[in-house]
Amino acid sequence: MSRIRPTLLPGLVLCIVVTLVAVALQAIETRLVGEPYLEALVLAILLGVAIRSAWTPGPRWAPGIAFSAKVLLEVAVVLLGASVSAATVLALGPALIGGIALVVALAIASSYALCRLLGLPKRMAVLVACGNSICGNSAIAAVAPVIGADGDDVASSIAFTAVLGVVVVLLLPLLVPVLSLSLTQYGVLAGLTVYAVPQVLAATLPIGALSNQVGTVVKLVRVLMLGPVVLALSLVTRRLRDEPVEAAPHVTAGDRPRLGRPALHELVPWFIVGFLLVLLVRSLGLIPAPALPPIAATASALTTVSMAALGLGVDVRVVAKAGVRVTAAVTASLVVLGLVSLALIRVMGVA
User: Fold this and answer.
1) What is the pLDDT at residue 291?
2) 273 C-beta neighbours (distance < 10 Å), count
3) Residue 149, SS3 per DSSP
4) CB hemisphere CA count around 64 (13 angstroms)
């Protein structure tokens, strides 16, 4: 992580202030009703979204907010490796790992078909399908140059990933009592449906440590599918790359990027490598037991600050501007992913 520059301070302080307000509200909840129905992590997102809806932070605030939403969250994921052991990974078993790959493949195919059925252009349909099915922004950024997507399609897809990513984090925990999910089952569901690795923390930490561990490992396996998917797309979309850009409902203007394949670091982000290394160190018993609770607390605090930043970066008005077709396609794609994931949990008899 690079040294914090002075330009980061305004946005970083804003995110910390929002986090402190969220923590205070959680404390008030606990005092009034005995337990927090909305944890600080969720409250930070809601506060951030509310602030962004009333006020758009200018250039002075943007660097610190972006730093908090990305770098701090990635550091939190790395630290999370200390709370997961190799035994947790191995406990998934080869059948579930194969099932994760199957879910990704089915989700991409069905999402693409839905998007085309609803009239989305081919390139945007591919971006939405891969973003929903694998890892949100990272998948969109990696796939875009392979299929020759223009900046408008990328902007539209990423905008929806930001909005729906927050919606999923907020609503997914509500399914635990509705579907009578165990901690392990919910962890698998979150790992298969939440867009980004860091957002799995936000969706699972309020439910329990076991859900958090299982969800993170499942999500990492899902993210590792990005490499094979990009490779496959590079082989089957040559004709698509040569086609002219189609008309589409755009959010912002942009130029068509250069064609090519993403670099290795785009397929395997640094924080995933860091997570795996910390997990290995933990599994070898090289992290003292007294150090584990402070590490977990630090990861949780960084996640909450990052969720405040995530909320501050989400403009819910984007959905209204993008049009009904895109909204319906992305939402339907996400619902299909959830249904396929639940089917896997039931078919495989996850405890």
Assistant:
1) 92
2) 12
3) coil
4) 20
